[in-house]
Amino acid sequence: MSAAPGDVHPPSRPESLAEWAKNLRRLDFEVATRAALATAVPLIVLVALGRIDWAACASFGAMTALYGRAEPYRTRVRTVGVAACGLLVSIALGVSMAAAGASLPVLAVGLLVVITAGMLLSAVFGLFPATAIFFVFAYTVCSQAPTPSSEVLPRMIVAVIATAFAFALTMSGWFIRKAAADAPAGLFKPLPRHPRVRVAAVRDGRVWLAIVQNLVGVLIAGGLAILVGIGHPYWAVVSVVAVMPPPGATHSTARAIHRIIGTALGVVVTGLLLLPGPSVAVLITIIAVGQFGAEILVSRHYGAALLFITPLALAVAHLASPVPVQTLLVDRVVETALGGGVAILIVLLTRWTMPLVAAGRRA
Question: What whole-number distance in Å separates Cα of residue 83 and Cα of residue 96?
Fold first, then answer.
């Protein structure tokens, strides 16, 4: 039976390919590639030097390349520079705590300082992500890695070099775009993000509400993890900061649920990769691929991105402070569920109380 003139036909193959190509261009391969290179190259150098125990400092310095996404280069140089300074201070504080053998209360105070300063820094300079997640991750892991006092300076030198390399990679697109000034339109992705410096953010009630939520959440989650006797309580802390919405964002529980489910599936992937006992070279490959995949997916679906983020995070932690893989995997699932659960409760409590507070003010 022939189709009537007004019938709708399925899209032809050329149209499907065009749509597929359009969707492919939406993926941020530029950001993902520089993030993977920024992480992999310093780690390869450390392997060649026989100092893979300094991997954490290099990896967190390399996270500088995660900032400046979709920003013009005049703005990006400021954004990435601020993020680099924040990461280096977080690493330095963590390394110093580890070398000094700081007590739990001192570590907790340092964590609260990092969260507060990191969120204010993000709010004032318009960093993306607009949370302290990478600063907290750097501080918590570095503060737990065994560090002789004689190695504080060399570890910080490694962190500075890795940060400088990541900064150079992040800005390298300026030279490429300048050299290809006559390239066809559409070759490069647009750079629509224009963050402004907003000093007034330090007086913004929404920013301080988010800070208080994070501080309360990490204290509760970290305390519970320690009471339960979990071996890596900082995962619960990092989970709280990762789940909490940034200042002014909608208080949704979807992100927490995505994180818990995505992490559980990511742990399965990590187990398949780490349980066979891979070499250091394979671990570095896992970290680089994880960084690439995470940057491709994180802005599209957070839960799917965790299939890459979890192997990346656990491989970095395993390089920094090797422990039995089974223990690492179990701790990751339990503490992510714990941190995510605490974050959900705080999000719901905020959602319930804020209308009451607003009504009280109007009254």
Answer: 20
**Residue 314 and residue 331 in contact, taking contact as beta carbons nearer than 8 Å:** no
Tell me the whole-structure pTM to 2 decimals. Answer: 0.86
Structure-block tokens of residue 242: 């990762």
- Residue 8, pLDDT > 50, answer no
Quote the mean pLDDT of the chain.
Answer: 84
Residue 44, phi then psi, degrees to nearest 5: -65, -40
For helices 302-320 and 254-274, the axis angle rounded to 10 degrees is 50
- Domains of the chain, by residue range, sit at 29-177+201-358
Report the C-alpha gap between 319 and 286 in whole angstroms: 12
331, 231 contact by CB (below 8 A): yes
- Alpha helical stretches, state H, the chain: 13-26, 29-49, 55-62, 73-100, 104-125, 133-144, 152-179, 205-228, 234-243, 254-274, 280-297, 302-320, 325-362
pLDDT the model gives residue 170: 93
Q: What is the pLDDT of residue 235?
A: 85
Tokens of 38: 């920024």
DSSP secondary structure, 283-317, as one string = HHHHHHHHHHHHHHHTTT-HHHHHHHHHHHHHHHH
| Residue 238 one-letter amino acid | V
For residue 68, give the nearest of 197, 186, 167, 137 by alpha carbon: 167
